Amino acid sequence: MTDKNKKIFSLLIKTAIVVFAFWFIYHKLVANENLHNFKILLTDLPQVEIIVVIGLVLCLMLVNWFLEAAKWKRLMTHIERISFYRAIESVFCGLTLAIFTPNRLGEYGGRVFFLSPKRRIVGIVAMTVGNIGQLVLTNVFGAIAACFFIYQFVPIDNLVFTALVVLASIFCLFFIVFYFNIQWLNGILLSFKFTRKYKKFYSILKRYKKAELFRIILFCFARYAVFSSQYFILFAWLIPNLNYLDIVMMTCLLFFIQSALPSLDLFDVGIRSITAVELFKHITDQHVAVIACTASIWLINIIIPAILGTYFVFKLNFFGISKSN
Fold first, then answer.
1. Which of 17, 74, 96, 108 is the most buried (most CB within 10 A)?
2. Residues 93, 262, 232, CA angle at the centre, nearest 5°?
3. Of 96-105, 219-228, 305-314, which one has max mean pLDDT?
4. Distance (Å, whole) CA 219 – CA 134
């Protein structure tokens, strides 16, 4: 295939992705009654207050994904030097592809196609390291929140509760130790005959030393704090009688449960809403407000960035065609 044909074919693929993404988003937004409920909840609130709070949550969305871009740039230090703007492009493009792929698999493609062809598979490995760091925090804070939830809302024998706390501690310790020894994964993969022939791709794991992994997990922690704050702000604003510590606990549990469920970003709002209602029903009976808050966060954190990312889809380099061509 000539470079000209590659460019034409590449443009067709990009156009199809953008059209497909907008079609999916449009149909999902039109059918979403939860966003309509959110709008109704805002009708009696002062206009200035709405602008300030929603504006703050939107700003936190940008901070969240800019932090992810900074983390991606850091992860790529050992593979391919990229600018911060290039990292932003790839992150937002990945979000567009993620909305209609199971478990956000399209996000990998959206990012690595901004890399040179020979470094794309290694880039997937690097991205996995960052995702593991995020998963570690989600599981650790989720396990801690689960212990507080059981203590507060589940009648349980003290001995059984103590055993659960011990198990939760072991669970957290396992994830922390495994993350800071990510090179163990390299050894595990080498132990299987069918994966040894790919060792040149995952051998990059050995380059992530503990100091580097600590810096990466700091980015993960900052992101966790930011998107947790979004939930906290909306729940504390629309359901003002909630205890602040309860909001934090339920939010951490919500992330924890969501991370264990297979999902599709575009349809994930239903799962998020059901999970949120089941958790928050222990501390409030305002289920409509809970669902509306969850749906609005889905719109702000997933749909809006995915729409912004459609611009960067046209910068994808599927065939590694040089710019000079």
1. 96
2. 75
3. 219-228
4. 9
